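Hi there. Long-time user, first ticket. I'm pasting a complex I've been working with (about 540 residues overall). I'd like to know whether the download I got is complete or cut off, because the file seemed smaller than I expected. Thanks.
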Amino acid sequence: MARMKFLCDTERCIECNGCVTACKNEHEVPWGIQRRRVVTINDGVVGQEKSMSVACMHCSDAPCMAVCPVDVFYRTEDGVVLHDKDACIGCGYCFYACPFGAPQFPQEGAFGQRGKMDKCTFCAGGPEADGSDAEFEKYGRNRLAEGKLPLCAEMCSTKALLGGDGTALADIFRERVVRRGGTGAELIGWNTAYGGGEQKREQTRGGDK
Amino acid sequence: MCAHLIVMLRTALLAAVLGLGWIAAPAVSAPPDNNADVYRAVREGSAQSITFTAPADQMLIQSEGQTWRQWRNGPITQIGGWVLAGVFIALVLFRLIRGKIKLEGPPTGRLIQRFTTVERMTHWTVAGTFVLLALTGLTLLFGKHVVIPLIGYSAFSWLAALAKNVHNFIGPLFFAATLVMIALFVRDNLWQSIDALWIRKAGGLLSGEHVPSWRFNFGEKTWFWLGVTGLGLLVGITGLVLDFPGYGQIRQDMQLAHILHASGALIFMALSLGHIYIGSVGMEGALESMKTGYVDETWAKEHHEYWYREAKGATGAAPAAPTGARPSGAH
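Hi, the file is complete. Here it is re-exported in full:
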């Protein structure tokens, strides 16, 4: 049985936010909630800037699952951490515990109370029947049931974000590590895309100024 | 083949640069495929920008959640649960050994007012909301372990949603009533020199001896300062931080508030068991005083002798002067 994982290759992520947009669109995620986000460190510092896309990491020892007072979380056979929105009471404990800020809450009612928690489902829906309207309404599309992988990773333009069986991802990543050298844009093939390498890149930048 | 050559050349060049010590450009601190530095920086929240941030969530990867989880699932749930159970068992044992504290003399039938209507209304508002908050809070902390096996997952989810909403809406009322109660009772809970005697004799709780006091003895004062005031304000303020998440508090603030709230509330509940015991089944006449506002003169004389004499003095009967000195300002 597969053990589903996400992997984001920071040597490739270009902070295009395509994954975020794909996710929001595919699942019709409500306003104010992002199941996936992109973080950039050392933004604008030449040679040190790194970006990565992060969502629910479907932990083996999931903190959300450990602290939930009503036990709404469950793990599928593929190792995907899902939750039952019908039983969620909106206490926010999973949001306190999660390292990745995955659980998020829509505001409801006169006092802006927390509604039912929403998070990345690894495109695997929820407890409702696979592909049903009820499932889509609450959790978004169930792509795994259709034999497809998460859309964020499938649509990633630089294939920085990978989603799928951990063993397969590890093989892909290992091969990348073995083949490539250098850092940053060199890795995704600047030469291939634009030709001229570093010199050309510097010239282009100069021309922009 | 060409790419391979370039890699080889780059490696050779890098080795040459390192060997000669020409490090003009920023050095590559870690191997290019090792993202440990990146993840470390992200966890520290240093120099990072997030494309989408929520007010409560200014760090993408937070390690504090793990600490919160360990506190909440560890000592708070486990020690807290055993402390509550322990106090309950201790009270049952106390009752079996010491029995109900009864009046020693016969009741006179003459009544003295001990609590005004406002005081009683405030007390019962605080008491009622406290019990509701305690029960709903316990449901959220222990329900997963205790109630789900009994009534099942779906029924418990319904119960927990009710518990959360009752807790969130009753909480601010409890806080407001607590503030009123502190203001009403603070004067008579200030230190009085006779309290030293109560401490020396441990309130006569085990010996059965009556220790004289003014309106409130040191046991009641401990409950007032430690329980009502200290823990009441602690759980009240941290509760507001948790109850209204949209006022700029970030996740780490709420984690800390929750730890203080839960541990404070468990100590509060443990202490309250003692107060509820002595105020109901543990002592004859105690419940009537808060129900009706009046106590029998015998009760007043036995439990609060100085206060009794003072009250008698105020109603015109001949009081014997209390022997203990009293501070100015306390009435």
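A couple of notes from our side: Chain A has a mean pLDDT of 86. Chain A touches chain B through 56 residues (CB under 8 Å).
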